[in-house]
Amino acid sequence: SEHLIQIEPQGAVRLLRLNRPEALNAFTAPLLSQLRQALEAAAEDRETRAVVITGAGRAFSAGQDLADPHVAPSRDPGAAPKDIGHMLEHYYIPLALRLRSMPIPVVAAVNGVAAGAGANLALGCDLVVAGESASFIQAFSRIGLIPDCGGTWLLPRLVGRAKALELALLGDKLKAAEAERIGLIARVVPDAELAGTVLAIAQRLAAMPTRALYETRAALDDAMKLDYEPALKREAQLQSQLGFAYDYLEGTAAFLDKRSPEFKDR
Ligand code: T3D
To answer: Where does the record locate the signal sequence feature (predicted)?
Structure first.
């Protein structure tokens, strides 16, 4: 079948490129399932220690393919209405869950416009780096929908309720620099430097203690729903586990020996 996700291994980093450039990498069921499978394979491969997701061509992704006959409402008044909830249940939710529970860090390299579910796929990654010509659009309200692919959960956590509602209700295009300014994304870089910067970040992450990175994401997400004292206790619990792990032994030994650590846990 067609390679809608191009998989490009670069040492310990695996780059996944959304590959429907002629359709601005708009999502179809096959593309979404290939992306989920590519994440699954990266999670299972012990040699892979970081993932990059980017788009082929001028866009990151235009979100759901609105011309896809499987989801596009029929204009024939006699036709039975389609339940687009199935698309979420079978494709977007499994993808969003797989992304959010990856054992290794995932960096989004946003190379152009990221709209609708395309924006929220990027925002669900651990680090979001965008080229300066990139932009983010919560396009859903424009077509009568709500932010999906994690948007309702991610947006208020990333930028607070006021900005989340501004983005979600108005559905305006937000330039990368403004996205960085309001804390929606981590960093904006010149377009020509995007690929190199993201690869360097992913390579750095790949050399870091993977399990500690994984627990860091988990602890931050947990803390969002905990009071202060339970969050402190959760930190202690995770720290206790990590304290028994090889990477902590190696990290402290390397520090005291003034050498580079060689982490192994994953
Ligand atoms: O349905 C369900 O299953 C529920 C799930 C929903 C999840 C969602 O993601 S809903 C949101 C879907 N996405 C959008 O609403 C975004 C629609 N697209 C745009 O707003 C704009 O195209 C962009 C801002 C992304 C890019 O603008 P621009 O000016 O750079 O390009 P363009 O000229 O608008 O688009 C180029 C072509 O791509 C054009 O086709 P043409 O004229 O060359 O034949 C355009 O129609 C097509 N295109 C863009 N986005 C989509 C698309 N075709 C299908 N689906 C798209 N999402």
So the answer is: none
